[in-house]
Amino acid sequence: QVQLVESGGGLVQAGDSLRLSCAVSGRSIREYGMGWFRQAPGKEREFVAAVSWRIDGRPYYVDSVKGRFTISRDNAKNMLYLQMNSLKPEDTAVYYCATRRAQLQDGNYYRQREYDYWGQGTQVTVSS
Known about the structure:
Elements: E1 3-7, E2 10-13, E3 18-25, E4 32-39, E5 46-51, E6 59-61, E7 69-74, E8 79-84, E9 93-103, E10 115-118, E11 122-127
Parallel strand pairs: 2-11
Antiparallel strand pairs: 1-3, 3-8, 4-5, 4-9, 5-6, 7-8, 9-10, 9-11
């Protein structure tokens, strides 16, 4: 049974930082790309960031978070992270981590259907 558990969300003010964590069990993430998505109230879930399974771990970001968010992974700990700086009210959402369906594959990191296991989400609220 693969399980993903996010943590680190909370209520912050605009300009503050948060670091989200995602603990994965039941699957070694070493050979899987990983991603973060978010869903704001009344909106569809959207891609935020992803990182390749490759050692160099190339990151991918949605334009709205480039330069502010950093995705990283610790394969030894089976953990995924999202460092969020300069938070804005429009970043308010439930944030989900997910693991890719296919091993050792890149591409289409933006597509939700490329991911097979998801966490339950962690709420991030940014006040103005």
